Structure formats: structure tokens, C-alpha cells
Amino acid sequence: MNKIKISRAAILIAAVFVLLSFKVPEAPVVGEISFPLGNVLVFEKGKTRATKATFKMPLHNGDKIETKKTSRCEMKFKDGSVVRIDEQTIYTIDHAQFKEKEKQVEASLSLGRLWANVKKLFSRSDSWKLKSPAAVVAVRGTIYRMDAAADSSTTVRVYEGNVAVSPPVPPSQQQGMGVAPGKPQQVAPPAQVQGPQQVSVEQWIEIIKAQQQIVVRPDGSFTKSDFDLQQDAESEWVKWNQERDKLLQQR
After folding, report:
1. Backbone angles phi and psi of 162, in degrees to 5
2. Are 178 and 156 in contact (CB under 8 A)?
3. pLDDT band at residue 171 using 50, 70 and 90 as cut-offs
4. Do residues 167 and 203 touch, judged by C-beta distance below 8 A?
5. What is the pLDDT of residue 203?
6. What is the spatial distance between Cα 114 and Cα 85, in angstroms, rounded to a whole number?
7. How many other C-beta atoms lie within 10 A of the C-beta of residue 81?
8. How far apart are CA 119 and CA 217, in angstroms?
9. Does residue 182 have a pLDDT over 50?
10. 3-state SS of 105-133?
């Protein structure tokens, strides 16, 4: 009888060790909170309860970062690229993957203002995209900002380099398009801008260069034009970001 009890106990102990050996792999860290200012909340994927952001707090795929009133947040990704969001902004890291010779980043700006200083992409398979309710921005290494308004309209302004802006692909058209996700698409060379223009709603891709902006409306129509750098620099939001970018260069 005692031998049976001992055998059962031994089997139970062995089973516990086996279960402990099968640990759920930890989600890869894709970046960190590099400068939280005020009331900044992080919602982990699958969780409804938020955690208050702290300095060097690790970030993972699926994390949603939300800033409350009079709050801001700077995030640094593993490749050194930096994203900052202004007060009352909602930003989500949909998917980020950093390998030795490849990086793929997709994120969403649901509402608010964002500034991005993205490191240059070298591989043709590299991809860095930011989505809003009205537009998708793809970059190869640049400094730009995006504003996503409450009515879903989106404004993108470029300070260095250039970005490709297009409307979001409806879910019904995402399948069977014959194009691998994240692969760069060939687009027509940018034409010279001749002031604001009204464009009909259709599938389009626009290249926005430094000192240019595009305003995309909820119905998919857009206006593309130049903007005044000096006047833009009077914005406190722009000044703050430019000062933070200078600090990056000094590190």
C-alpha cells in the first residue's frame, strides 16, 4: 500500500516538473517608454485594465498607449526610431518585428497627434507603416507628423525625407489582391505640387516630400500642398518635438 502511495506521489511530482518545463514563451520586447510625461496609460493586448507608464517600461506587440489631458509620451523602438504622442492620443503597436537584416512595423493612430523620427530602412523587405482611420503612411526613414481628428480626417506633414500616403484598404479587398503584405509597392514618380487640389475618391498613392502636407478627409478625398515651416515652428507641439530630436542627435 505504501509502495502504491509512493509511486503515485512520484508520478505526480514528475508531472509537475514536466508542466513547469513547458513555459509559455514571453512576448518579445519591441521597444520601451523613453519619456512619459503626465498621465500615460498602457493597455496590454487582451487586457482591459491599464498600467501607468513608467520610464523604460518595455513595450510589446498589441500594446495600446493612451495619453490623458496635459500628458505626452515618447517611445523608442529597438532600431532606435522614436515615436511621440501628444495629449489625448491613442496609439497602438499592431505588429513590430526586428531581425538582424529585416524590420517590420505596423501601428495605428486612432485619435490625436503623433510625431515620428524613423531610422532609415535599408532592405527592400523592410516596412514601417502608420494607419489612421482615413490614411496609411509608409516611410523609408524620415521625420513626419500625423494628426487624426475626431471626425476621422487625417493630416500628415513631412519635415525630412518623404512618405507614401494612401487610403486604408477595406477589409473586403484585403484578400486576393495578389500582393504580399508589407512588401514595397512601385508608385508613379511624384509630380510637382501646384497648390491645394480636390481629388475624387479612388484608389491612390501620393508621395509627400519635405515641407509638404496632405489632408485626407473621411470620404477618402484629399488636398495636397506645401506648408510654411516658420509658421509651423511656432506650434508648441512642434517646438517640443524638435528639441527632443536634437537630444537624440547628442546621444
Report:
1. -150, 160
2. no
3. low
4. yes
5. 72
6. 4
7. 22
8. 29
9. no
10. EEEEEEEEEEEEECCCCCCCCCEEEEECC
Q: Tens of pLDDT along 101-151?
A: 889 999 999 999 999 999 998 888 899 999 999 999 999 889 999 999 999
DSSP characters for 138-199?
EESS-EEEEEE-TTS-EEEEEEESEEEEEPPPPGGGSTT-S--TT-----PPPPPP-S----
3-state secondary structure of 19: helix
DSSP H or E stretch at residue 4: helix 2-21
Strand 90-98 and strand 64-67: pairing? antiparallel
Dist. CA 91–CA 109, nearest whole Å? 5
Grid coordinates of 61: 506587440
Using pLDDT thresholds of 50, 70 and 90, give the confidence band for residue 190: very low
**Which residues, in sequence order, are CB contacts of 215 under 8 Å at separation 6+?**
153, 154, 155, 222, 223, 224
Supply the Cα-derived Rg of the chain in whole angstroms. 22
Separation CA 250–CA 67 (nearest Å): 27
Of 23-32, 33-42, 122-131, the least confident: 23-32
CATH class of 26-171+204-250: mainly beta
- 230: region left, alpha or beta (phi > 0 left; psi from -120 to 50 alpha): alpha
Residues facing 222 on adjacent strands: 216
